[in-house]
Amino acid sequence: MSYSQGEEPIYNEITEVKAEIGRVRHGLAPLMLQLLFLILFSGVLLAFLLQVPKVPCTQDQEEIYQELMQLKPRVDLICRPCPWDWMFFHGKCFFFSITKRNWSYSLTACQEVGAQLIIIESDEEQSFIQKMNKIKSHLWIGLSDMKHEGSWQWVDESPLLPR
Questions:
Q1: Residue 70: inside a domain, yes or no?
Q2: Residues 92 and 47 both lie in one domain
Q3: Separation in Å, CA 112 to CA 77, 82, 117
């Protein structure tokens, strides 16, 4: 290849710059390894320091901690008295399943989660249940005469009282 005057030195300069870049890149590898080692060593040192035994609590601190632990469930109830998929009304939590089941199966399903079928205790609850029945179109209350025909009882075995 022939060069015109002045071209060859530019080529040589470009070649030298490329070689210098290559040397810089190769010089970065040990530096990067040292930096990685320093980061890993710092992490191990921090983990070790966090494993140092903590200072034991004083009696007062322990009592305060115990009181806070006793208050936590109450605070949780204030913030969210019912599970997320349940509805809160007049101090009670109601769950309206999307699954249509018969009365007996619904009774058992409630008992398995520590709940019971609805026991209506006020006119407000009666109105609420009637509105929910229009929306849900199918729900069971906890009233039956299964134990004694014609003798209506709630699932908690309390009798149906006339209003």
A1: no
A2: no
A3: 22, 17, 12
**Can you give the residue range of the structural domain that contains 23?**
1-52
pLDDT in the model for residue 71: 76
- Per-residue pLDDT tens over the stretch 97-123: 888 889 999 999 999 988 999 999 999
Using DSSP bridges, classify how beta strands 87-89 and 153-154 pair: parallel, antiparallel or unpaired. unpaired
Entry pTM: 0.49
Contact partners, residue 158, CB within 8 Å, separation at least 6: 119
CATH number at residue 99: 3.10.100.10
**How far is the C-alpha of 142 from the C-alpha of 151, rounded, in Å?**
14
Whether residues 141 and 88 fall in one domain: yes
Cβ neighbours, 10 Å, residue 162: 4
